[in-house]
Amino acid sequence: MLTKIRRVWWEINKPLFWYDFLYYFIESIPGLAGQKIRGGLVSKYSARCDGGKLIIHRRATLQGIHSLTLGENVQIGQDVFIQANGKVTLEDDVMIGPGTKIWSVNHKFEDINVPIYDQGYTQEAVTIKKGVWIGANSFVMPGVTLPEGCVVCACTVVNKKKYKPYSILSGNPCRMIGTRSPQGEKQLDYTKD
Hints:
By secondary structure, the chain is of the alpha/beta class. The protein has helices spanning 2-12, 15-26, 31-45, and strands spanning 48-49, 55-56, 61-63, 68-70, 75-76, 81-83, 88-90, 95-96, 101-103, 105-107, 121-123, 126-128, 133-134, 139-140, 145-146, 151-152, 157-158, 167-170, 175-180, 186-188. The protein starts with a helix and ends in a 5-residue tail after the last strand.
């Protein structure tokens, strides 16, 4: 009994416990008030938050908050799930559509003689550069770097490979379907596979 009490006491004295505990109560507060309250809590516990205009919509889940870095004017949509234990960086002016998942850890699975859940994890940092927009229900895999100004279409699975700045990305597997010019002109090329 004493061991269980010590374990609980140790758990509740960790700072991340209090983040998870408090976030549980504020994750569904609607409107601007909820966005401000969630933004304030995330700013306090994240690795770094440059502050200005952090918007976190309802039911967004941010795990590994201590490894999450946020720039200015970041918008995180409703029902987003960010697993940041392997380190996730969202630079300035990043928008993440509802239902998107960003993962920075994965199960190891190489040894067929050991159950996957006993093999541990790999961690690969994810970096989302300035001005990226990730459409709804997309999945960003561990180790991905999305360069400046990219647009990720809805329901895209973004795997780890090299992308050009201002690319328009779509599909599973993800591929470039066009480019954006810095002046704002959209240039699509549907002839490529």
